[in-house]
Amino acid sequence: MTEQQRRPTLIDVAKAAGVSRALVSIVMRDAPGASEATRDKVLEAARELGYRPDTRARLLRSSRTKLLGLSFSSSQPFHAEIVDAAYAEAAAKGYEVALSAVANGRPETRAIEALLDFGSEALILISPTLSNQSLTRYASHVPVVSLLRENVGDLVDSVSSDDNAGIRMAVGYLAALGHRQIVHVDGGTAISAAQRRAAFHTEMLRHGLKPVTVPGGPSEEDGLRAGQLLQLDMPSAAIAFNDRCALGLMESLRANGLHVPNDVSVLGYDDSQFARLSYVQLSSISQDAPLLAAAAVDRAVDRIEGNQPPAHVIRTPHLVKRKTTARPRQSSLPGDQSRHQPSEG
Amino acid sequence: MTEQQRRPTLIDVAKAAGVSRALVSIVMRDAPGASEATRDKVLEAARELGYRPDTRARLLRSSRTKLLGLSFSSSQPFHAEIVDAAYAEAAAKGYEVALSAVANGRPETRAIEALLDFGSEALILISPTLSNQSLTRYASHVPVVSLLRENVGDLVDSVSSDDNAGIRMAVGYLAALGHRQIVHVDGGTAISAAQRRAAFHTEMLRHGLKPVTVPGGPSEEDGLRAGQLLQLDMPSAAIAFNDRCALGLMESLRANGLHVPNDVSVLGYDDSQFARLSYVQLSSISQDAPLLAAAAVDRAVDRIEGNQPPAHVIRTPHLVKRKTTARPRQSSLPGDQSRHQPSEG
DNA sequence: CATCACGTCTAGATCGTTCTATAAACTAGC
DNA sequence: GCTAGTTTATAGAACGATCTAGACGTGATG
User: Fold this and answer.
1) Residue whose C-alpha is closest to residue A151's, from A195, A112, A188, A107
2) Exposed/middle/buried for A229, CB within 10 Å: 0-12, 13-18, 19+?
3) pLDDT by residue (tens digit) across B33-69?
4) Which listed residue, A278, A321, B97, B173, has the most CB atoms within 10 A of its CB?
C-alpha cells in the first residue's frame, strides 16, 4: 500500500517558475532561446521540485533516444568486461546503454527485439551468432555493430581483434623463447576459432615448424580434455583458444605431474580476469576489452550522428607476458613425467 | 547511408484494415470491444505490415509497461546466473526485464535511475549497497525488491537466502565428518558477511567447538591471503565466504604442499559455476540462484499487480557435497607439511 | 412507440515531451 | 519615428499509443 506519488512534469516546473512549458523544455535541453536570468530561475524551480525529464515522452517526440542497445551473453565473463567499458565510453559520448542478455531459453533475436523496443538508436552485438542475412535485415532499420565477429556483410559495421596478428605474436614469442614443438588447442566451433586455427597453421609453417592442432573449445572442460589428448605426445608449449581453456589445460598438466612453465609453457587468449589472478599469472594475448568496447561505441555513435557508411575496424591485440611461459628445458623430450616442486607461491 | 524505413504505426494498420485507430488498439491489446471478424481482419493487416506496437508511446499513455528493472554487478558471475533465471521467470509472467549493470564508475544510483527511465514498474536489486533510507525513498515511487540482502526496512521487499541455516549446515556437516578444528574465512565487509560470521560463531559454540575466524573477502585474492594466515595454525577444515574465496584458499594450501581434502577440507558458498568445474568439484552451500531469482520476480509482480504489502522471503540453502570435503586424518596435527601426490585426475 | 440494454465501433482528449510557427520586446540604422 | 533584425518567449501541433464518452444499429421490454 505504498503511496505512489506522481512525479513532476514540465508543466509543474513551468508553473513554479512562471514561464511556459516550451521554455522549460528549452532550458532542460540546454538549447538556445532563453536568457541567463530565466535559465537560472527555471533550473532552480526544477531542482526544487526534483524534476526529471520523462524519457518515454522525450523519446516519443524527438526520434532521438540517445540509447545504444548492447546484447551480450550472460555466461561469458569476458563480455562483462566489455559491458563495463561500453558504459563508460557511452556516457562520455552522452549516450545511455540498454542491456539485453542472451541466456538460456532467450535467443539472440529476442534480446535484439527488446533492445529495439526500448528505442535503441543502434545495436552493438557481442559475438553475434545470427546469420549475415538476419544481421543485414536489422541493419536496414538501425545501425548494427558486430563486436568480435567480422565478415558480417557490407551493411553491418564490425569491430574485431586481429586474430592473425594475435596468433602471429603468440607463435613468434614462443618460437623466440626457443620452443619447437608448439600445439594449438583450438576453439572448436566457437566464433573466430577457425580464424585462429588457420593463422596458427600458416604462422607455424612460416617459422619452419610443424603445426599441430588438438580439438578444444571455449571452456575449462575443453582444455581439460585437450590436456588428456596431449599426454600421448607432450609438446613444449601450447597456445589455448582462450584463458578458460588454458586454465583447464594447465589443470590437466598439473594433475599429470607436469609443471608450468618448467615442463610446458601455456599461453592463453583474452587476458581475462582469470589470467590476472595472482596465483594464475597466465601469459595471454590481450584483446583489450575496454579498447574494443570503446571502438564499438564510437562506431555506433558515428553511424548515428554522422550518417557515415558502415566500416570494419580491426584492432591489434598485444601480448601480456606473465608466469606461464618460459624457455623450454634444454631438450624437450616428450614423455618426461618426472615430478616437480609446486610453483613458488 | 542505409535507407532507414519508417516503421508502421497504428494508423497504417487502421488504414489498411479500413477501421479506426482505436479499434486496432483494442485488437492489439486483446481487449474486449471488437467482433471476431474485424479482429481477424486487423490482425491480418498488422501481420502483413509487420506492425509492432511502439513501447514508448504505449508507455506514455498507459502507466503499464510490463517491465521489471533488474540491477546487477558486472563483475559477479553469480549475478549472471540470477539474470538468466529472472529472464525466464519474468517471461513466464508476461513481463520483460530491463537490465542495468553496476560497474566501474557507474554507481548503483545511476543504474537505478536508468531503470526508472526505461519505465520499470518495479526494481529488483541484487545485493544493493545503498542505505536503507535511499532504498525506502525509491520504494515510495515503485516497488523495490532487494535480492540477497535482508533487513532493508519495512517498505522494501526482500528475497534472501537463510545465511544462518547455510552456516549451520556447513558446520554441522563438517562436524559430523569428525572435524574439530574448523575455521571460517569470512567475507570482510561484503554483504551478508557479518551475518555468516555471527552464525558461524554461535553454531560452533553449539557444537562445543572453538570458533576461529580469519579475515577474508569475496575474491580469490582474499582466499589466497587467508591461506597464508592459516599457515601458522592449520585447521582440519575451512568454510570460505564464497566459492571464489575458497578457490584462492585451496590454491594457497596447494602451494604449501597440502592436499584437499586429505589434509584440509574446504567448503565454499554459492555453488557457482566454478564450484561445478570438473577439476574443482568444490563442496559448497547452494543458494540456488534460479529459485531466488524466481522468488524475487514473483514478489515484484505480486507487488505490482496485487497491491500487496511488502514482504520478506527467506529461502533455505542446501548443501552440495563434492570432492573437497572428507573425514579428517586420524589426528590432524598442525604443521604436518609432508608432500602428497597430486589429486587423482 | 418509446425506452433501454447491449455489442460494436469511432472521435477526440490525453500522456509529457519536442518542434515549428509566430508574437512580443528590444536594439540598431537611417 | 519607422523599418529591419535579433533575442526571448509562447501557443499549438505533433509523436504513437490508450482511454473516455458517446454514436450507431439491433433487439428486447414495457
Assistant:
1) A195
2) middle
3) 899 999 999 999 999 998 988 888 888 887 777 889 9
4) B97
Nucleic strand D under 7 Å from the C-beta of A23: yes
Task: Measure, in angstroms, how far nucleotide C14 C1' is from residue B61 CA.
Answer: 8
Which three three-digit cell numbers place residue A161?
Answer: 581483434
Superfamily of domain B163-282 in CATH is Response regulator (3.40.50.2300)
CATH architecture of B67-161+289-316: 3-Layer(aba) Sandwich (3.40)
Residue of chain A with shortest Cα separation from B83 = A74
Residue-level pLDDT at B119:
82
Q: Beta partners for B99?
A: A99, B70
Q: CA B61, C1' C12: Å apart?
A: 15
pLDDT at site B337: 44
Residue B56 · residue B84 · CB < 8 Å: no
Domain A1-49 annotated CATH 1.10.260.40? yes
Could you tell me if B251 and B224 are in contact, meaning their C-beta atoms sit under 8 angstroms apart? yes
Of B192, B236, B234, the residue nearest B217 (C-alpha): B192
- Cα(B166)–Cα(B199) distance, integer angstroms: 9
Element holding A194 (H helix, E strand): helix A193-206
Pairwise CB contact (< 8 Å): A84 & B77 = no
Q: Pick from B59, B112, B258 the residue to mutate for testing the A interface (most A CBs within 10 Å).
A: B59
